[in-house]
């Protein structure tokens, strides 16, 4: 337990930690290091990104072997109910036995141990909220018979993140509170030398932990790094300090050493980096400079402050020599109001109605929406939820039998109309507008400012309707998703304002990226609308190669895919005067074509008014 | 509990919470901003600063000093002259978890009793627990609209009414509603925004020194909660005394006609709908004057409180880059110059 003994143990282990026989083994070492830190102070939390498999199993096995033998090590399924987490009445068991059976909540049952959340990327916001609350407060409140009790929940959470797509992630409220972010990608425990960690060593590190005190420099370094990485939350640097302390405790130090701080930065801060500190050889200039709100984008941007709100840098850009890329401010356009509403009532492309193949599948599912719960209702109009109905009626049985007039034989099951529950769907009325903006040189020089204005106008409508929006931009050789689907107008506007322009026109890539978003939106039960703003002059093909003929053919293919996917679309022509290319793309997409108006918006209003409308207008009607 | 006095910066948020603690009638407080800015810490810390409250022995912890708003149980006891047992409890802070059902919030049939004894009994919900304290809702922007509506209704009326098959319950539920959220994840409907008394926008501090300070205190607290709390005990006591003194003084603070007029002018200038804005501004300014030990509400109080009381009531203009708070400050400056 003394520092001396710990140091000795560490010396024995050191060769194993420093030798790096191969990349896979090195990554495994990193994983073990994270596991060790977590085992010393599980409250830091761990987000473990890995597919199910032997490596992940080995990681969890290692973790388990490091924890005290009697500490709980519980698994939490993705679809867990609130009662199961907090504790409460076990309805199934209660009904069976005829008397109340109380269930101890998983959170309280895991006190002092570790809770492993399986498939955390599918965890509901509700469950994540409860976990966050338990982490923040260190206890959960349970009420019984008017007496409220507080049960301690000092737990360490391991969220197993199996998300494959960038937008598949555990709820943000939970991720924020989990300090260590570890990916097992490429790690391989085979052939790795012994890591030298065992339960005894962890136990003595835990005893040592309270006396580990971070010095000023350690905290300062961590805060500085967090700022440089563009990490806004202050919870994160604090978790990093905890990690540094745990790492120090592991080696018996009483203050975190620079290595401990480095470990903490690597395990806690680096995986969350939004911006990278400027590299000396950063070739991309300042194109993304006021942006950096889009994570996972190319690392550019100055380190601090993470979100410069000031106008000065942009002003400088404008006054300086014309940069290669320009950020063009939105200009007010003469777009008619209610453009979006008109678009929404537009008929879907006829193919979507045929119900053939995948497009039919999407549409059908989108119409029904995702089941998000139950409510009281009329089973003739909505789908009956039998289980929920029975569950509602069950507790009343004894009361209702007793309330029957004397002499009347109670029915076997006393059901009332108020017990009836129907399924509640989400997605019927929700619309996602996906903007696909041509930020190429040709479009930029002509009309990008006006295009931005148009998008802002439509955004304002989206705000009123509380629709979701997403933003894809294409320029140079590729298309980027600047903003995944969000309800936040703030973010949409920020991404838009920061949109740089210049370069070729990879129209096909842009359309396909937007189509991907539209499809996943439809899968979620929403109705996607695709708004493409372009001049239609494609000159970069799907593969990123220049060449007009190929680019044009690719764009045509992509446009047809939109039509085949049954996605409602609108093409706004950005060219100086209405171009045949943009019109052709619109035709291939089955989209409504509009020329972006100049000063007078009358022409456009007329165009929107003349756009074909659906009789049933499914997207705007509310249930 | 992290001491209120040890919270670094976030002055606007601390001010808004203190005002709500002095005069709950100001209405709820909405705190919008980044994650990890210590929103929920501040709420809990403030409640811990306040002195314990005396409660009757009933499920709603009624206030023995206010028989007029007692629950049915307390009333029947009072009528039959049964002596009321009282006790002291801490000011409650109730967290409303995301995904809480209406039953859970408003209260519902006690399942356990119904199943076992066939007995019909009301099981109080979170609103009952929050009576005389704070109801804190993180991520209120993700809460379903009808629930936000329910909460605002109860918060405004101070009473929760449950009418359901065979159940008819009415009980006091006076609490300060505090909602927080991150606008990047969705916005609250304007109709709901307007019904909160005060709103604050919090940002993580941008300078390194402050950030270090925050992390350092947090770490020191976690290593030795008791020792850390002891360090700030005196400062915390000062906060408590200020709030208690302000509560005592509140009814004596005068609101001259001139100030009423200024508040109205400000509201008109900003085009806020209805009278709610100026009423809240008046109330908040009065509580602020009481906190500062002033006996008359003047322009300085109004000017300081206008951003908190009015910025969330402006008609949202998606094309105006300036934030709402900036627009309010602009109007305040213009009015001062006029």
From TrEMBL, chain A:
Signal peptide bounds: none
PROSITE patterns: VWFA
Name of the protein in its database record: Magnesium chelatase subunit D
Family as reported in the entry's similarity comment: Belongs to the Mg-chelatase subunits D/I family.
Species lineage: Bacteria, Pseudomonadati, Pseudomonadota, Alphaproteobacteria, Hyphomicrobiales
Record key words, sorted: Ligase
Single GO MF annotation: magnesium chelatase activity
UniProt cross-references to NCBIfam families, sorted A to Z: PRK13406.1
All residue ranges annotated as the VWFA domain in the record: 432-611
Top EC class, one word: ligase
Keyword Ligase annotated: yes
Any one Pfam family match given in the protein's UniProt record, by short name: AAA_lid_2
Enzyme Commission designation: 6.6.1.1
InterPro entries, per the entry: BchD/ChlD_VWA (IPR041702), ChlI/MoxR_AAA_lid (IPR041628), P-loop_NTPase (IPR027417), VWF_A (IPR002035), vWFA_dom_sf (IPR036465)
Biased composition (Basic and acidic residues): 311-320
Keyword match Ligase: yes
SMART domains xref list: VWA (SM00327)
Annotated segments matching region Disordered: 274-324, 350-376
């Amino acid at each position: 337990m003394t520092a001396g003994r710990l140091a000795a143990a560490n010396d024995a282990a050191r060769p194993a930690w420093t030798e790096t026989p191969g990349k896979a083994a090195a990554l495994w070492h990193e994983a073990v290091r994270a596991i060790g830190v977590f085992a010393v102070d599980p409250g830091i939390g761990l987000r473990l990104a890995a597919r199910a498999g032997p490596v992940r199993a080995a990681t969890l096995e290692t973790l388990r072997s490091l924890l005290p033998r009697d500490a709980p090590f519980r698994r939490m399924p993705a679809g867990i109910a609130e009662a199961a987490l907090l504790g409460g009445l076990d309805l199934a068991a209660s009904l069976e036995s005829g008397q109340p059976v109380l269930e101890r909540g998983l959170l309280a049952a895991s006190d002092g141990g570790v809770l492993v959340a399986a498939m955390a990327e599918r965890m509901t916001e509700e469950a994540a909220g409860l976990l966050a609350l338990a982490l923040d407060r260190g206890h959960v409140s349970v009420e019984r018979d008017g007496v409220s009790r507080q049960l301690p929940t000092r737990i360490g959470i391991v969220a197993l993140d199996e998300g494959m797509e960038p937008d598949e992630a555990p709820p943000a409220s939970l991720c924020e509170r989990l300090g260590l972010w570890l990916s097992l990608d490429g790690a391989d425990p085979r052939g790795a030398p012994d890591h030298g960690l065992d339960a005894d060593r962890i136990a003595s590190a835990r005893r040592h932990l309270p006396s580990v005190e971070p010095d000023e420099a350690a905290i300062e370094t961590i805060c500085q790094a967090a700022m440089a990485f563009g990490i806004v939350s202050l919870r994160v640097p604090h978790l990093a300090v905890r990690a540094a302390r745990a790492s120090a405790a592991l080696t018996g130090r009483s203050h975190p050493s620079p290595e401990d701080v480095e470990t903490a930065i690597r395990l806690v801060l680096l995986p969350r980096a939004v911006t990278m500190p400027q590299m000396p050889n950063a070739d991309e200039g300042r194109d993304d400079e006021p942006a950096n709100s889009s994570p996972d984008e190319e690392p550019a941007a100055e380190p601090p402050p993470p979100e410069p709100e000031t106008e000065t840098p942009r002003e400088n850009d404008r006054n300086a020599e014309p940069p290669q890329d320009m950020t063009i401010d939105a200009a007010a356009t003469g777009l008619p109001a209610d453009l979006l509403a008109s678009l929404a009532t537009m008929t879907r492309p006829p193919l979507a109605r045929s119900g053939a193949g995948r497009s039919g599948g999407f549409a059908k599912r989108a119409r029904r929406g995702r089941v998000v719960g139950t409510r009281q209702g009329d089973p003739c109009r909505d789908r009956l939820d039998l289980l929920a109905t029975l569950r509602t009626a069950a507790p009343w049985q004894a009361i209702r039998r007793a309330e029957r007039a004397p002499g009347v034989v109670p029915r076997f099951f006393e059901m009332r109309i108020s017990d009836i529950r129907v399924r509640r769907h989400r997605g019927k009325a929700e619309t996602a507008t996906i903007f696909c903006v041509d930020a190429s040189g040709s479009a930029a020089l002509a009309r990008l400012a006006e295009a931005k204005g148009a998008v802002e106008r439509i955004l304002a409508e989206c705000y009123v309707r509380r629709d979701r929006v997403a933003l894809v931009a294409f320029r140079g050789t590729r298309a980027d998703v600047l903003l995944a689907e969000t309800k936040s107008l703030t973010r949409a506007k920020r991404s838009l304002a920061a949109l740089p322009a210049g370069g070729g026109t990879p129209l096909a890539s842009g359309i396909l990226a937007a189509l991907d978003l539209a499809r996943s939106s439809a899968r979620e039960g929403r109705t996607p609308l695709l708004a493409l703003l372009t001049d239609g002059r494609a000159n970069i093909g799907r593969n990123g190669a220049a060449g007009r003929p190929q680019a044009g053919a690719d764009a045509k293919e992509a446009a047809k895919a939109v039509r085949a996917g049954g996605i409602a679309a609108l093409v706004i022509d950005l060219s100086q005067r209405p171009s045949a290319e943009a019109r052709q793309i619109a035709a291939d997409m089955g989209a409504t074509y509009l020329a972006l108006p100049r000063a007078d918006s009358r022409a456009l209003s007329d165009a929107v008014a003349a756009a074909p409308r659906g009789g049933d207008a499914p997207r705007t009607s509310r249930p | 509990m992290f001491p209120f006095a040890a919270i670094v910066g976030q002055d606007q948020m601390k001010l808004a919470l203190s005002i709500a603690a002095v005069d709950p009638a100001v209405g709820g407080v909405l705190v919008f901003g980044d994650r990890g800015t210590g929103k929920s810490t501040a709420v809990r810390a403030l409640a811990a600063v306040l002195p314990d409250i005396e409660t009757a022995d009933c499920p709603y912890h009624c206030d023995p000093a206010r028989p007029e708003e007692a629950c049915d149980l307390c009333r029947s006891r009072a009528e039959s002259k049964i002596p009321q047992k009282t006790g002291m409890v801490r000011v409650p802070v109730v967290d409303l978890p995301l995904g809480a059902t209406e039953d859970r919030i408003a209260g519902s049939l006690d399942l356990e009793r119904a199943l076992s004894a066939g007995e019909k009994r009301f099981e109080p919900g979170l609103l009952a627990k929050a009576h005389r304290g704070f109801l804190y809702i993180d991520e209120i922007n993700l809460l379903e609209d009808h629930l936000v509506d329910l909460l605002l209704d109860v918060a405004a009326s101070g009473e929760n009414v449950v009418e359901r098959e065979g159940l008819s319950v009415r009980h006091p539920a006076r609490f300060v509603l505090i909602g927080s959220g991150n606008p990047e994840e969705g916005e609250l409907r304007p109709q709901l925004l307007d019904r909160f008394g005060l709103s604050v926008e919090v940002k993580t501090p941008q300078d390194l020194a402050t950030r270090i300070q925050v992390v350092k205190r947090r770490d020191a607290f976690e290593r030795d909660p008791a020792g850390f709390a002891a360090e700030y005990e005196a400062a915390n006591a000062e906060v408590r005394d200020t709030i208690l003194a302000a509560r005592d003084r509140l009814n004596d603070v005068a609101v001259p006609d001139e100030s009423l007029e200024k508040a109205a002018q400000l509201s008109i200038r900003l085009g806020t709908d209805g009278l709610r804005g100026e009423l809240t501004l008046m109330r908040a300014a009065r509580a602020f004057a009481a906190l500062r030990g002033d006996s008359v509400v003047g322009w300085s109080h109004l000017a300081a409180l206008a951003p908190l009381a009015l910025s969330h009531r402006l008609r949202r203009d998606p094309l105006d880059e300036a934030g709402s708070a900036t627009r309010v400050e602009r109007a305040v400056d213009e009015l001062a110059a006029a």
